[in-house]
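so my prof wants the structure for this chain in the C-alpha cells format not the other one, which i didnt know existed until like an hour ago. anyway here's the sequence
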Amino acid sequence: MAQEHKENQLSFIMYNAKDISRFYKIKKTTPPLSLIIFPLISIISIFIIVAGAIYLKELKNLTIKKESSIITHLKKESKHLLLKIDELTKFSNTLQDKLASTDMPEGSRPLNIIKETKGQKILIDKKNITIKDSGDNSEIVPQIKENEITLKFNLVNNSTVSNKQNGFILVTMTDGQSIYFYPKESLLPETFQFAYSRGEYFSFERLRVVEAIFQRPKNFQILTFKILLFSRTGDIIHEQAISYKAIN
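here's what i got, hopefully its the right format
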C-alpha cells in the first residue's frame, strides 16, 4: 500500500545554496488538469473578446444608421418649416398692404350685410374652388327636417397653382322675411353685419365637406341660400346662390 501511495506521487528536492533544502510532494494528476483548465480559460476569454468586438461594431453601425435617419427627418422638418415661414410671410405682407389701403373694395354694394375690410377684393372670377352637392344630385338640395334645415355641400379644389385652399365659409338663408346665418357666431351685434373672420375656417387640398344647419322657419314658400367663401385676408373668392321652392 505504501508503494502504491508513492507511485501516485511525485517527489523532488529543491536545493538552495543560501537556505535549507526543501522536499516537495505533488500528485501526478495535477499537471494534466492544469494543462486542460488554463487553455480552456484562454479560449473562453478570446471568444468573449471577439464577441464583444463584433457587438460593439454592430452597435456603432446601428447608431450611424439611426443618426442618418434622424438627420434626414430633421431636414424634411426644416424644409417644411421654411415653407410655412414663407407662406406666413406672404400672408403678413398681404395683410399689411390691405391695412394700409384706404380704397373700398371693388364691386362694393350698398347696405351690404357683410362687413367690408380695407383693401378687400372680389376674386370670384378665378374659380379656384367649386361647390358641389355632397350626394349624387346635379344641384345642391337642402335637407328639410321638422325643426331644422341642413345645407350640405362639398368644396372642391380646382387650382393648378396651390395644393391647399384655406379661408372662411359664411352661409346665409332667407325666407323673404327673416335672415338666418351660419355659423351663428359670425354676426357682429354692434353693427348687425357678418364678419368674414368669424366664419367657419377651412383648409383642404382636394375636398372639404361643409354642413350648414339653420333653424327652420315656420311657414315658407321659397328659401334662398348664399354661400360666400373668403380668403384668409378677407377677399371674396367664391359666391354662389341657391334657391329652393317648398313642395306643398
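also thought this was worth mentioning. Residues 1-100 form one domain.
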